[in-house]
Backbone:
């Protein structure tokens, strides 16, 4: 054996599990591999979070734009219920997929993370209930294009704010940036007016989430690899933040 | 130089090192369900229990038996002491790895 320092020149143990790692390098490798495996199993595949929402926005708002474009222009003649039903079905589907993904990943972990996730989920639920309670009766008195802009603008605005809040809760810069992006394009879309808003949200918002999903996935893989390379981390990474 | 750093005998065993390394990835304040931990580690329930008990005796792991609804659950988490011991162990192993291997004064220095 190369390393005869420290306690690595061990006596043979009776139980195989009691055997120390063969040498320091093996010990570090064991730690790194185990932590990478744990991180892989304990963090969600973020594609499953962002792609369903991204597709819902891309397709749903895309259809809304085609139904009623800028200045009342109709690109594809279809009844209003068609894009609306498509959008809401896709949004509900995305919500269910997010719920399943979260439960599968975090279901067996209790404590602070779970409480955070639960309260954050409640903020979404109650927040959107509030939006619906207010906009439902109000939008009845508005022409179709303005009612649509009101609904979409307020909902997307709340989504952006909640993403930013999520970034603040988990100190996740990417999540915060996504929230900023959604908030900004929402404001730009609302200023541009009915029709344009749907186009902006479809392409920049839905497309943005599809991109964000891939970016987050790659980032997590890279982070896992970094964690695997260095466990010295806890101190040095904290100070790097 | 006081020689090679001492390695914590509780953690310095492959199986328990894997358990502690896994628990160290949880965020502070979180606990993991026994079956999920077992699943990640790919250990038998009996085997994992034995190692957890040893870690608990050393004060490195806290095991809480509770109920989620009507199902009894066993929750596992690293204690502060356990987290500290793991960090110390990692540092000690790194020190061993980084240390020049010509500590013996009888041997000539390899590098100037």
Residues:
């Amino acid at each position: 054996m190369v390393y005869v320092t420290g306690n690595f020149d061990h006596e043979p143990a009776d139980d195989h599990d009691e055997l120390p790692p063969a040498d320091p390098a093996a010990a570090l490798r064991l730690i790194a591999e185990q932590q990478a495996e744990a991180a892989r199993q304990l963090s969600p595949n973020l594609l499953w979070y962002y792609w369903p929402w991204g597709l819902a926005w891309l397709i749903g708002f895309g259809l809304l734009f085609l139904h009623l474009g800028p200045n009342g222009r109709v690109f594809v003649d279809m009844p209003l219920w068609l894009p609306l039903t498509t959008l809401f079905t896709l949004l509900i589907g995305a919500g269910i997929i997010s719920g399943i993904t979260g439960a599968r990943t975090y279901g067996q972990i209790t404590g602070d993370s779970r409480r955070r996730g639960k309260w954050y989920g409640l903020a979404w639920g109650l927040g959107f209930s509030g939006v619906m309670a207010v906009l439902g009766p109000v939008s009845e008195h508005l022409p179709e294009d303005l009612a649509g802009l009101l609904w979409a603008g307020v909902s997307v605005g709340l989504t952006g704010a909640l993403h930013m809040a999520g970034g603040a809760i988990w100190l996740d810069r990417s999540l915060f940036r996504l929230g900023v992006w959604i908030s900004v394009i929402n404001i730009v879309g609302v200023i541009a007016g009915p029709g344009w808003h749907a186009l902006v949200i479809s392409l920049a918002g839905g497309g943005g989430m599809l991109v964000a999903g891939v970016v987050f996935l790659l980032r997590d893989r890279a982070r896992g690899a970094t964690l695997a390379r260095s466990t010295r981390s806890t101190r040095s990474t904290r100070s790097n933040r | 130089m006081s020689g090679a750093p001492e390695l914590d005998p509780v953690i310095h065993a492959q199986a328990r090192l894997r358990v502690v390394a896994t628990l160290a990835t949880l965020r502070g304040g979180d606990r993991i369900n026994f079956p999920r931990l077992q699943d990640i580690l790919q250990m038998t329930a009996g085997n994992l229990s034995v190692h957890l008990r040893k870690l608990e005796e050393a004060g490195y792991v806290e095991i809480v038996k509770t109920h989620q609804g009507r199902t009894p659950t066993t929750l596992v988490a690293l204690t502060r002491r356990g987290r500290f011991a793991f960090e110390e162990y990692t540092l000690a192993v790194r020190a061993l790895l980084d240390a020049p291997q010509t500590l013996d004064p009888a041997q000539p220095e390899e590098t100037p």
Q: What stands out?
A: Chain A has a mean pLDDT of 83. The interface with chain B takes residues 2-3, 5-8, 13, 17-21, 24-25, 27-28, 30-31, 34-35, 37-39, 41-42, 108-114, 231-232, 234-235 of chain A (CB under 8 Å). Residues 46-223 of chain A form one domain.
